[in-house]
């Protein structure tokens, strides 16, 4: 699994064949075929392992009693630490067409529920539409994975990145609320009446 992850990160998903992984791991082709019948089985196993690691780090805290800010800060800290430690393996995997379908149904559902949970918290906190909340959630969840390699090479520590990203998101939602939310709509209406 580690050899497969290294092949994917070094050469891309398309170059990740069972033969390439066997060579990288220093094992025979027969041995790798004993564990995986094809490339898709291997990729699905890597996805399952990464999701298990994420769960072990508490990546999906969904306590309805906690504020959006508290949930966001904790989630960002865990996400940036995971990305720093594990690299952009999930982003690289998901960049390949069809790999997302290899996620187990439970993992796809969990991912969808987490997005929905955060979007609902945003609607509740900032009084913006659900469509806007989903769009913003998808953008803010996916951006850290795209930036991790550059942040790491620039010397940015996970804690520093998480604190900045939390501040940036909170400021962005406050601004979006003023412009697109119910409070923003009420202010625009008052200005139009004057």
Describe it.
By secondary structure, the chain is mainly α. The chain has a domain at 62-182. The chain has 10 helices and no strands. Helix 8 packs antiparallel against helix 9. The chain is elongated, with a radius of gyration of 20 Å. Mean pLDDT is 88; it is low at 186-191.
Strand content is: under 5%
Q: Give the overall shape.
A: elongated
- Give the radius of gyration: 20 Å
Strand and helix order: HHHHHHHHHH
Give the number of helices.
Answer: 10
- Main pleated sheet: none
How far apart are the termini?
Answer: 65 Å
Number of strands: 0
Unreliable segments (pLDDT under 50, ≥5 consecutive)? 186-191
Mean pLDDT: 88
The helicity comes to: over 70%
Specify the structural class: mainly alpha
SSE map:
Layout lengths: L1 H10 L6 H8 L3 H7 L3 H18 L11 H19 L2 H6 L10 H22 L3 H24 L4 H23 L1 H12 L1
